[in-house]
């Protein structure tokens, strides 16, 4: 065909926009099958899956065994494929495949947020050296076009904050607890039965998944390349109906909120934790498996995007939006990465609600101010240094403690009267 890749370099010919893009699909789980299904229903997309690679030949699938290759390397070396779509859940293997494809100058689309978050600088270097293209809209917030929005529309505008609900699985659990009055275990079981949570839900419920997404957005929104472990992530594994009821008393809900906040003196901080969200926030009504993102821009003002954050069709739709963008040779601009970078800081104090019976942990956290305490319910509200929370986050999980931030943040050396409320949209 006239738009075949030029050997290992993978350079598309000039008439690629006129012919169907030939896709090599690696992985046929929830996302891969969603991509395939949408293409069968929308032939007008002018793209077709030519080859599918999977790992396990014995796993039951909706297509016959003859439809699959069982060696992804075959797709890497197939010059008849215009685009490689990586849709597996193994981050190290995904990086091997994607980096190899970029090393050939190929066009690649991925939905693997952990892989992108862990290796973004390396992936960008491969793009620059070999001329390939990597797009990953589906890696963050499913069907919401947040990466394209930040990269294309806010690539040069200062952003006060980018915050939101980035994980549909934990949001579904919190919705069930709030609406049904159920405890965490029952709500999680319901999420698993509905297919919104994995058998091992750790990545979602412990907030590792939204942390990866926050790393990716930090690069596009602020031009800051972070390592996942730099970001505080606290989850909901130890949440109880008591915590939900406490929030409801003040007309609030508990949501897992990922927040990227611009601070004075050109500093950035990023947090991914449960948070109390009031009725005035757009995130208050983002329930079930939905995601929501609030962008607070210097000149454009506040923008709010809401959509399904998980599932084969919503995520597959985002993958195919990237495939369609490749027809016009679209690439991320990374304008803010090329500009002078902000300084990342954790030199802050965060006001948190903490429920625990572990006295040793309370001493270790070193509350600098206590604003509320109830011994009978086992909770305390006050300010804790962010660095201390980062240092003791594993201890919090092991102790079965539940922590949620109120939204109030202040510089570590500032007195209570100077406390700042960041991200007022929350």
- Assess the beta-strand content as a share of residues: 25-35%
What composes the largest sheet?
A: 7 strands, mixed
Cα separation of the termini: 52 Å
Whole-angstrom Rg: 22 Å
Q: Percent helix among the residues? A: 25-40%
General shape? globular
- Structural class by sheet pairing and helices: alpha/beta
Give the strand tally. Answer: 18
The total count of helices amounts to 15
> Overall pLDDT, averaged?
91
Q: Which blocks of ≥5 consecutive residues have pLDDT under 50?
A: 1-17, 415-419
Explain the overall architecture.
The protein is an alpha/beta fold and 426 residues long. The protein is 34% helix and 25% strand. It has 15 helices and 18 strands. It has helices at 30-41, 72-76, 91-103, 113-130, 146-153, 168-180, 184-193, 202-205, 208-222, 241-249, 312-327, 335-338, 359-365, 386-391, 393-398; strands at residues 21-26, 47-53, 68-69, 83-86, 107-110, 133-135, 159-165, 232-233, 253-263, 267-277, 290-297, 301-308, 343-344, 348-355, 369-374, 379-385, 402-411, 420-421. The strands form 3 sheets. Strands 7, 8, 9, 10, 11, 12 and 13 form a 7-stranded mixed β-sheet that branches. It has a 6-stranded parallel β-sheet with strand order 3-2-1-4-5-6, with helices on both faces. Helix 1 crosses helix 11 (312-327). The longest helix has 18 residues, at 113-130. The radius of gyration is 22 Å and the shape is globular.
Fold blueprint:
Elements: E1 21-26, H1 30-41, E2 47-53, E3 68-69, H2 72-76, E4 83-86, H3 91-103, E5 107-110, H4 113-130, E6 133-135, H5 146-153, E7 159-165, H6 168-180, H7 184-193, H8 202-205, H9 208-222, E8 232-233, H10 241-249, E9 253-263, E10 267-277, E11 290-297, E12 301-308, H11 312-327, H12 335-338, E13 343-344, E14 348-355, H13 359-365, E15 369-374, E16 379-385, H14 386-391, H15 393-398, E17 402-411, E18 420-421
């Amino acid at each position: 065909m006239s738009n075949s890749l030029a050997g290992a370099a993978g350079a598309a010919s000039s008439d690629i926009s006129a012919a169907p893009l030939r896709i090599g699909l690696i992985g046929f789980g929830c996302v891969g099958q969603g991509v395939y299904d949408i293409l069968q229903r929308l032939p007008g997309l002018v793209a077709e899956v030519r080859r599918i690679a999977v790992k396990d030949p014995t796993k039951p699938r909706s297509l016959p065994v003859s439809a699959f290759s069982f060696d992804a390397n075959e797709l890497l070396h197939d010059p008849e494929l215009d685009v490689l779509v990586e849709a597996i859940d193994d981050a190290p293997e995904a990086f091997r495949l994607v980096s190899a494809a970029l090393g050939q100058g190929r066009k690649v689309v991925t939905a693997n947020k952990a892989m992108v978050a862990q290796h973004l600088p390396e992936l960008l270097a491969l793009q620059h050296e070999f001329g390939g293209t990597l797009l990953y809209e589906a890696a963050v917030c499913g069907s919401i076009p947040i990466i394209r929005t930040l990269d294309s529309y806010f690539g040069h505008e200062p952003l006060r904050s980018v915050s939101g609900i980035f994980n549909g699985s934990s949001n579904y659990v919190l919705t069930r607890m709030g609406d049904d009055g159920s405890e965490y275990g029952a709500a999680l079981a319901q999420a698993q039965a509905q297919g919104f949570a994995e058998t091992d839900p750790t990545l979602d419920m412990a907030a590792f998944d939204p942390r990866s997404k926050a790393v990716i957005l930090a690069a596009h929104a602020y031009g800051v390349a972070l390592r996942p472990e730099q970001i505080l992530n606290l989850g909901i594994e130890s949440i109880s109906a008591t915590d939900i009821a406490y929030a409801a008393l003040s007309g609030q809900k508990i949501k897992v909120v990922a927040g990227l906040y611009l601070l004075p003196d050109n500093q950035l901080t990023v947090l991914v934790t449960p948070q109390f969200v009031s009725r005035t926030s757009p995130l208050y009504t983002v329930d079930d498996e939905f995601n929501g993102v609030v962008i607070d821009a210097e000149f454009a003002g506040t923008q709010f995007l809401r959509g399904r954050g998980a599932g084969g069709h919503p995520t597959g739709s985002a993958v195919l939006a990237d495939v369609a963008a490749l027809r016009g040779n679209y690439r991320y601009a990374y304008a803010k990465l090329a500009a002078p970078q902000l300084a990342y800081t954790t030199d802050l104090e965060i006001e948190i609600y903490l429920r625990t019976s572990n006295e040793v942990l309370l001493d270790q956290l070193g509350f600098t101010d206590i604003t509320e305490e109830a011994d009978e319910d086992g909770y305390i509200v006050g300010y804790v240094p962010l660095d201390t929370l980062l240092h003791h986050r594993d201890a919090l999980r092991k102790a079965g403690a539940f922590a949620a931030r109120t939204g109030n943040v202040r510089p570590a050396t500032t007195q209570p009267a100077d406390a700042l409320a960041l991200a007022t949209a929350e």
